[in-house]
Amino acid sequence: MKTIKKNNKHTRLFHKYTKKEYLTLQQIKKLMKLEFKLIYNNNIMNSFIAIWFTNINNKKVITKSTFVNKLFKKPDGFFRYITL
C-alpha cells in the first residue's frame, strides 16, 4: 500500500527524531530548533503542550498520528504555515 507523498515526509521527519511511537518535549524542541529554526518561549510551549500533547504512561508526549495528521493541517495546526 502506497502512502501519500506529503504524509511520507512528515513520517520521515517524525522518525528522524525518535525510534518510538511518540515524541517527548525535548525531542519536539530539538526538531523545531534544527528543522524549522523555531524557538518559542515557555508560555507558548505550555499552550502547545496543553493542546497537542497526550498522556502515555503519565508522560506528556506527541503521538505519531497527531504529528502527521494534525500539526501541519490548516487552519488550526501548530505548524500550519510550514511546508515540507
How does this model look, in words?
- The structure is a single chain.
- The chain is mainly alpha-helical.
- It has a three-stranded antiparallel beta sheet.
- It has a single domain, classed as Orthogonal Bundle (Recoverin, domain 1).
- The protein is built from four helices and three strands; from the N terminus they run H-E-H-H-E-E-H.
- 13% of the residues are buried.
- The mean pLDDT is 90.
What are its keywords?
84 residues, mainly alpha, Recoverin, domain 1, 4 helices
Summarize the structure in short.
With 84 residues, this protein is mainly alpha-helical. The protein is built from four helices and three strands; from the N terminus they run H-E-H-H-E-E-H. The protein has a three-stranded antiparallel β-sheet.
